[in-house]
Amino acid sequence: MIFLINNRFKADFEKNTITDQSKSQTHHLENRLISVLLLLINAKGEIVKREQMIDEVWKNYPGGDEGLNQAISHLRKYLDDNTKELIKTIPKKGYVLNATIEEEKSEIKETKTLRWEVNRLFILLILAGIIVVSFLIYQNTQAVKNHFSKEIFLKNEEARSRLDSIHQAETLKKYENKKD
Distances in Å between the alpha carbon of 11 and those of 6, 22, 106, 158, 161? Predict the structure, then answer.
């Protein structure tokens, strides 16, 4: 997932980075920092309680309280939040991310989708080719069958006409013999 924060900071959760696009600076974040940022983004401007962050990110680790303070401090530094207006502290409650957030499509997902579309098209072309070849083979087989059937029919006709001629000749012979 990639989020654009205030049209300036790009948070890439697949690469664990925050990029300040105005300064072209990229910071690699440890997993806990990226998890805290994701909790704040997913809250969509609502308060995220300290206890929830400590529970979800530090799994109630005894040093989680101090770890959260440091994480917020680092995130403010990376998000150039000297005034503490972007990540607001709500005393005795938690934190709010006060920013406009836009989700960007991941390049990896777009590449996979494009790759799937190309593969699907390729498979459809192969299937269409198989159907065309099968049809041509069927047509050719029918033409050969028709040719041989016609040839056999003509040979049978010729044989029948010979038999008919022989029969007529015998009948004629019998008739002539009776006349004599």
Answer: 11, 14, 11, 89, 93
Structure-block tokens of residue 49: 């309680």
Q: Rounded to an integer, what distance in angstroms lies between the CA atom of residue 178 and that of residue 105?
A: 106
| Residue that wins the pLDDT comparison between 169 and 119 | 119
Is the dihedral angle over the CA atoms 133, 135, 139, 141 positive or is it negative? positive
C-alpha to C-alpha distance for 48 and 41, rounded to whole angstroms: 10
Give the pTM: 0.58
Q: What phi, psi does 27 have (nearest 5°)?
A: -120, 130
Show Cβ contacts of residue 80 under 8 Å, excluding neighbours closer than 6 positions: 20
User: Topology of 2-104 in CATH?
Assistant: Arc Repressor Mutant, subunit A (1.10.10)
The amino acid at residue 106 is: S
Taking each helix axis from N to C terminus, what angle separates 50-58 and 64-78, rounded to the nearest 10 degrees?
Answer: 100
pLDDT of residue 46: 96
| Confidence grade of residue 122 (pLDDT, cut at 50, 70, 90) | confident
**CA proximity to 2, closest of 72, 107, 98:** 107
**pLDDT at res. 138:** 81
